[in-house]
Amino acid sequence: LGRHSGDHRTQGFDYNGVHFGQDNLNVFAGLCAVDTPEHVEQMLKALQENGQVCTRMGAYKPRTSPYAFQGHGKACLPYVFELAGKYGMRVIAMEILHESHMDEIREALEKTGHPTGVMLQIGTRNTQNFELLKAVGRQTEFPVLLKRGFGITLEESLNAAEYLASEGNTKVVFGLRGMKTNLGDPHRNFVDFAQVPTVKRLTRMPVCIDPSHSVGNRDAGPDGIPEVFQVTAEGVVAGANMILVDFHPDPATALVDGPQALLLKELPWFLEDV
Length: 274
Ligand code: PEP
What we know:
It comes from Acidithiobacillus sulfurivorans. The protein has 274 residues and is of the alpha/beta class. The chain has nine helices and eleven strands.
């Protein structure tokens, strides 16, 4: 990924008609967690109406508590992929927690027959799950979004990305999603988007920002602008190449991370701002 070769030329990749590189910007707005087919459809319809071809849809959710909703998993894939095809989605970012999830996704995608693709997301809790990284790195069918680990150094997270590349998959986007600190931050995580140019200087990976999981709420400042918008702007100014952002048709009923989900009516405003 550029770290050990001394070669810092931009290395992008194309996947399913979408270009990912250090030289462009893709927005992946969508549901943190798939809950109902109706919400998936409302979300995707809004995205299509706003000219979007990428989205995020969480089927497998890594939860802090075993009693919290764990995601519908494999069961929701048929309707998620069917609706994604119906609304013209080209790439869905979807987190996986186990290598078997890749087979489940592949099988469900094949059954729908739509030209929708999946970018496999490895979340912050699995950044150093080396066996998962190796398994995902061994396949080259799906590109990967690797989130930084929230409690490890940047260097350690970049090495985690090398696990993917060293096994053969260099279609990797690196995600910044905020860091945990013990300073009682007002945000869910300490926003780390100042490191966008650092990652771009050190590697050839396109860099994603996740303002939703960094900020953790959709509160607005005194100017009426949600802080998620403000930190997104910081990340874009810093050179971000991808934005992963939570929206929900009815955040009050969302099963995961409702407080940070932006409203569908805010989607055109968000995209315009970006
Ligand atoms: C997510 O994007 O749904 C998620 C759980 O993110 P993170 O791994 O950054 O917490």
